[in-house]
Task: structure prediction
Amino acid sequence: MPLVPSYIKNLANYVPGKPIEEIQRELGLSKIIKLASNENSLGPSPRALAAMRLAMDKIHRYPDASGYMLRKKLADKYNLKIENVVLGAGSEGIMSSIMRTFLLSDDEIISAENSFIGFRVLANASGKYVHWVPMKNYRYDLESMAKKINDYTKLIYIANPDNPMGTYIKRDEFDAFYAHVPERVLIILDEAYFEYARFNIDYPDSMTYRYDNVITLRTFSKAYGLAGARIGYGFAHDELIFNLMKVKVTFEPSFLGQVAGFAALDDAPFLNETIELNKIGMEYLTSELSNLNVQYVTSVANFITTVWDSNERAAKLTQDLLEKGIIVRHLAAFGWPNCIRISVGLIEENVKYIESLKQVL
Ligand SMILES: Cc1ncc(COP(=O)(O)O)c(C=O)c1O
Result:
């Protein structure tokens, strides 16, 4: 059909993880453990939940299009001006606005091959030329990415830490890379798993330095347990934010998302519990996987990717685990056919996963 541009025709459909209810129906199982989407297994931040409940009777009204309350709170928290803060329907919503705001027709994009699939979809749908640079040892290869910078380069996307590998770029690596990037090139530093990764001393918390061409993206979807509320935020130079605000979908993010994010920022007990549970879970999973001689990639996020000898093996294990009521993510669609990603769950969920893995192995 001539109405559809070829780069859209060629896009593969995103295949999300199956909803729990669908799998329950298909397999006739009463209890399902979902460790497939890097969500917070503790549930949503209780403060966010309470705030959303209280706000429900106002949802006949449009939200504040400027997102003033939450932007102000974020600005105060990070000692910035409100003009440096943008909100979106998840950090992916902001990525989408970035693509529509800053890219001209000849502009090119550089990122890592088989990194965050959400960005891959947006980049391919933009119709722009994208240099997908292969990872090295499951990490972003910044040296090779720097070599791809040319006169057309406009946007560089770095997920730090990466999803699905959970590896991260260290501060000195980013500094060395940044020295190669001209000021006319925009860098997205996607820190969706910041709250988990920040404890590594060489992790470059991008809020401790602010370059004019760097946009930091963060989200309430992971550590705050608000993936379904679709609320994320970004920090950048006020001129970038000013123009992003013109292009973003007017009433994005939703009213409930804004309310939830505002309340979640005060939920330190929940955040601490989340981080602690993740730490314990990560230690348990890595030690059990090592005991089983299962290869995995060391991760600083809330998930861990295991490496198998073939696509068939990974697909079969995923199916076998599913039949035991455990949903994990085979990474074939992500470009890692011999890998399976598991989110860190509640203690009992992690134990059940390991027990089931032993059985299916
Ligand atoms: C690296 C990375 N960035 C962004 C996102 C999207 O987050 P949000 O829910 O804020 O759109 C995810 C979600 O999986 C992610 O893994």
In short: Residues 127 and 146 are 22 Å apart (CA to CA).
